Amino acid sequence: MRLALPLLLFRPRRPLARGAAWLATLLALLVLASLPARAQSLLRDAETERFLHDVSRPIFEAAGLKPRAVDFYLVGDPSINAFVTGGQNIFVHSGLILAADNVDQLVGVIAHETGHITGGHLVRFDDGIKGARNISILSMLAGVAAMVAGAGDAGVAILSAGQSAAQGNFLAYSRVQEAAADQAGADFLDRAGISGEGYLGFFRKLQEQEFRYGYTMDAYARSHPLTGDRIAKLEERVKASPVYAKPADPALQERFLRIKAKLAGYVNDPGLTFQQYPPSDTSPAARLARTYAYHKQANREKAVAEIDALLAVYPDDPYVLEIKAQVLMESGDVINAIPTLRRAVALAPAEPLIATTLGHALVASENAADLPEAIAILRRVIALDDENPFAWYQLGMAYSRSGDEPRAALATAERLSMSQGNARDIAQSAQVAMRGLPQGTPDWIRAQDLLLIAQETLKTQQGRRRG
Ligand SMILES: [Zn+2]
To answer: Which among 9, 42, 102, 269 has the fewest CB atoms less than 10 Å away?
Structure first.
């Protein structure tokens, strides 16, 4: 689990020069100050992303969508919400996962959101904002945050409050659209052989909250208006399904409890985590939650003890290894984090986020002998994950430390263009890269492409200013 703003919770305790630490804090404050009040963070975690894709695959297939074409974004926000935007993106708030009791409740919400995607209930977003694929501002700030943090976390990103307001809070689907999404969601669950009990249960839960407080607490219920009539119709529909009585898949439920516990440990106050997951609870989920809680308290010994107890049972679990490495790294022990990460990457070669952390550790070790491995691994990450400006940032550092300034400049141009940075800066970096690279090589051609795109952007901007 990685934070959008690593500076606040998991400030890297890698030794920073005093002045540099000061500067980092100051810049962090500036970044925060420049954000609107309810800024949100985007969380990235290999295990959680893999889980969301795995549980949704049967739903997407039932809906006729290509599972790989749908992207999930986990928003660090305690309110219960989920929404879709153009380009088949599903945003899920951490609050929604924490509020779900079981995997089928979460899958029910995903099925409903998928109903909004296939129903094309997205048009209104695209009028105002260009679709949240442009996590753009986002990645730009992310770049800043990562730089500021020095050893910042991978995939760092910030979702602007403006976007979230437009998407989550002020947009309400029409009743007709809601009814259509309800039905579609139930159909997809049926076809996937998943009971709609969780689906119904989650909506009931929201409705009960509404009764209890007399008004709608959560953004989800605001954007997806719940009425008694709607719930009654949904109930009738899901109870008629032949798979209604089918229990949740135990393996998926186990994974759900793990990702929920990680999230809880990561976002909640340690005190609350110890209440919810007391030390007497030795389930894997509870140990994961407590690892994060102890880590938040900077209690490295206890955090490592919890994670080692898990590793004794699951020695080959790449996600558990990843967390151990994260704890080591963030408590200043980069050297021991590296072999742990190498093992995690070997066990899960298709997880670019884990590989990013290894690349980061290899750069952070400040050992020149680690740089070729860092470059190789980060290049592989970039080929797998096209939304990872942090990986480009680390790759740029690795090239720069290896004395390869042209490729460092190319990495900067790539990172800036990915985060929709200033076209003039992109052009400048691309030119530096082109001057130093052998003409006609793939990297030189890529630099030329970036330069041409940036020049085109500049021309359009100048034209707009004149017009
Ligand atoms: Zn809805």
So the answer is: 269
